[in-house]
Amino acid sequence: MQLFKYPYLVQNEILNHTEFSDLFMLSFVSKKTKKLIQSSSQMQRFKTVNTIRYDHRSARTYVCIPFYYFHDNILKIAKRDNTKNNYFQLNVSGKIVDFSRVYKHRKYIPVASYQPDGFKSLIESIHNYLLDFFGDSVEFYWEADNYKKPIPQLENVTALLHLRHGLTDADVLNMRRFENFISSSPVLKCIDVDIFNMREPLNPESKFYQAEYIESFQSNPTLPSVLHYFQGRQAFLKWWKCDTRDVIEFVNKWKSEEALHKLEHIKIENYNDEFPQNETLDAIGAQHIDLAKKPPTHILPKVYFDIAFQKEAHTDPIASYTYVVRRTDNRVASISIDDGIFSFGVWDKTEEEFLRIVD
Questions:
Q1: Are residues 158 and 131 part of one domain?
Q2: Mind listing the pLDDT tens digit for each residue in 309-331?
């Protein structure tokens, strides 16, 4: 390789002006090249990487590094186009892989290709290489934008689903395929979905409800029925219309510790109706802080935060004079009702401890 003809200082300077994507591809060339990159000052750049994402779309997957306001794609994974002959081969974790390059976003990106039945083995080889190259200090995420194929079971990978579905009447959710996607994938950390054409309810035991965070925009609050079966920590639900009785039932379930054991925060936006404040507060047995005092503000780090595209890393603050108490352990949850917005935040405090922090 021509690079090794130059003195080390020149090699290092060349690498300093090389894109992440090119450095990554160069590291496949040989063990010697990989060692050179790892011993160069470039490793200081790589040490700033704490997250790697697999962005999986219908026909391709990008391996990318999230930075503020953008994802830096370092590798594309796509089905091999047998009509082209511009491929070259590199060794990835002991597997010989066909590579090409594509110009996108003003730079060249390496493309690792697979035959129709080779996607799984290629992904495993690439992931093993990433684990070896970056070590265990990096968090790995796999985000799918469809439910055609389950998210692969890979070491130390957190699964995410970002789905927009049902924007037309003909776009009906295929329940059998969707349930198979959910059951065959790892338990999802974050689900962000717009679902308007779900015709059947999910199984109450579905792994869908085990996600740590669910953000859902749906026309029918029971399809899916997050409020009834959620087992995670945080949720943001946007509904066209809801029955206040569902919210009352949800709060009373939490108060009795019948369900929602891990819940930290939930927000519901009801677009077409307002929540009747007095009726709801009376039905859930809400208690009130003295209006002469200042209530504490409930706020938590979000379960999942994408630094590239999300602006706020914390849940929406709740500073409310109303709260409820869970009977079994005397834990407190703040409640806010503001027209069509219902907010619920669980404190890690008993009622006595909670009232001590009221100003």
A1: no
A2: 777 899 999 999 999 999 999 99
